[in-house]
Amino acid sequence: MRAKALQVLMNKKHSRIILDPVHGFIPLSPIQEELLSQPEVQRMRWVKQLGVTDLVFPGGHHSRIEHCLGASFIAGQMSDHLGLPENEKTFLQAAALLHDIGHTPFSHVLEPLLPKDSMESTRDMIEGRKEIPLPNAGKIPAILEKFGINPKDISDLICHCYAGKKYLQQIIFSELDCDQLDYLARDSYFTGAGHGQINIQRLISVMRLDSDEIFFLEKGVAEIEEYIVGKEHMYGTVYLHHTNNAATKMLLRAFEKLSGKFPDFLYMTDGEVISALLNGTPYTKDIAQRVLFRRLFKTVFEISSRSAAKKEIEVIKKLSEKGEKAIEKELSKAAGIPEGYLFVHLPANVLSLTEPRMKTFNINFLRKNGTKINIMDISSIATAVSKRIPTRELFAVYAPEKYLEQAQHAAKEIFN
To answer: 89-133 pLDDT, tens per residue?
Structure first.
């Protein structure tokens, strides 16, 4: 069957075809091929899609370039299904391929250190607003213009402020877009977690255009509910796994000590960041080695979302206002733990930064009689998920095992 599919693609005379473990054969259009060869995109080959999640799920070490290719492929499939003109398909394929080039090394791990939103960094590269410190970089604007595309339109689409046709924005950034469809399927495949194994082709098949907006046929409710639940579970079991949270915090705090020496760290790769840590201070070297050889900090104290008392939730809200670093300093001093060996995690802050689409369900259906209705009005599952907290930890403290008792005592004092 795979050989037959390849023959069909070859008959269409695609200049290049890529075999992808999630989508099968991906034929590259001329604009995809040109953009893919650019250093800003190729850097994504050396940036892991899931940061340090492979410390928990060993198979989850796929790169962000794979995801960008997959998202671009899905954008093309959506375009074909909706019958969009070729120029709009090209526009969407380019936007999807470029949508993540502003990510830091280890993807979301180092994002809090950026002087501005990663979307703005993406805009810099797409519009050519600043010189990029990568060999032969800076050609993306010219490539887009060569294909009749305004670079600003691409970056507006990625930054979800596009003023053009609504369905174009929906395909690139909405509650159900090419980005999320790919990363859920891909991350689920590589980690082995089954939650994100959604039926992408079925979801695309129930899409319809009406008044420049994408709606879904009501018969697709079950598949969209599976998508919503799958996304929720992927956050709870994979993206916000407590061990992943601890390793993420370790890398973040360690590189923070060196970030002043690397003002352009955004353009580095994962390997370059680890090398910088190993060759930095004794502290950054220790943390890098702990991550490399999986000698991670342990969860020494946590307030669970499943059992938190009302009083504890109120304390967490106040702590959020204080900020993680201030709490870490206070707890380290109270516990007699050296600075940099106790970290605090407030997942609500992470969610708001990395996934703003987590709790919004502006997914609308087109009924047989022509009326339109929101999923929240017909799905008790969507309503239930919108109220659920996707992470086990509302508040957590991480430290090396040898400091367990001191850290626990200091943390308990806060909640007493």
So the answer is: 999 999 999 999 999 999 999 999 988 888 899 999 999 998 999
Q: Are 239 and 188 in contact (CB under 8 A)?
A: no
For the chain, list residues with pLDDT below 50. Answer: 350-357
Burial of 165: CB neighbours in 10 Å, binned 0-12, 13-18, 19+: middle
CA distance 392 to 246: 13
Residue 383 token pair: 């309503």
pLDDT of residue 361: 83
Under a CB-based contact definition with an 8 Å cutoff, are residues 182 and 97 in contact? no
CA distances from 399 to 151, 338, 350, 391 (A): 46, 10, 19, 20
Confirm if 172 and 95 have CB atoms less than 8 A apart. yes
Look up tokens 């695309």; give the residue.
204
Predicted TM-score of the model (pTM): 0.92
**The 3-state secondary structure of the chain, one letter per residue:** CHHHHHHHHHHCCCCEEEEECCCEEEEECHHHHHHHCCHHHHHHHHCECCCCHHHCCCCCCCEHHHHHHHHHHHHHHHHHHHCCCHHHHHHHHHHHHHCCCCCECCECCCHHHCCCCHHHHHHHHHHCCCCCCCCCCCCHHHHHHHCCCCHHHHHHHHCCCCCCCHHHHHHHCCCCCHHHHHHHHHHHHHHCCHHHCCCHHHHHHCEEEECCEEEEEHHHHHHHHHHHHHHHHHHHHHHCCHHHHHHHHHHHHHHHCCHHHCCCHHHCCHHHHHHHHHCCCHHHHHHHHHHHCCCCCEEEEEEECCCCCHHHHHHHHHHHHHCHHHHHHHHHHHHCCCCCCCEEECHHHHHHHHCCCCCCCCCEEECCCCCEEEHHHCCHHHHHHHCCCCCCEEEEEEECHHHHHHHHHHHHHHHC
